[in-house]
Amino acid sequence: MYQQMIFVNLPVNDLDASKKFFTELGYSINPQFSDDNAASVVISDAIVAMLLTKPFYATFTDKEIADAAKTSEVLIALSAESREKVDELVEKAVAAGGTASPRVQDMDFMYGRAFDDLDGHTWEIVWMDPSAVEG
Q1: Closest listed residue to residue 6, CA positions, set 36, 50, 38
Q2: Contact call for residues 121 and 15 (beta carbons, < 8 A)
Q3: For the whole model, what pTM was predicted?
């Protein structure tokens, strides 16, 4: 059965630093789709973050590239398997040079935190109690 995938393309200032950041979070780089202009970060079997140097990113759009450190262009939300895994990933991001958001979503059935990566892209990490989803 076909599994649809998502490829999130993000402009980055320093490709090597961004690759190091995401590998420190526990993700891998797929060398088959990586070179001096881009790095393919494997988040899961169905989610890939493509980190693109800004000049290379510009070849895919006629629009001005947003400065994610100043302007919110997207909120990327990833699920986590537990509340503890939410905290673990955010703490890894901070240790790797990211910035944790002071906002915490803490409801009985859902828990979430966020961090900005080295370029200011916001990543939300969310756990939801499976029984709350079952209805």
Answers
A1: 50
A2: no
A3: 0.91
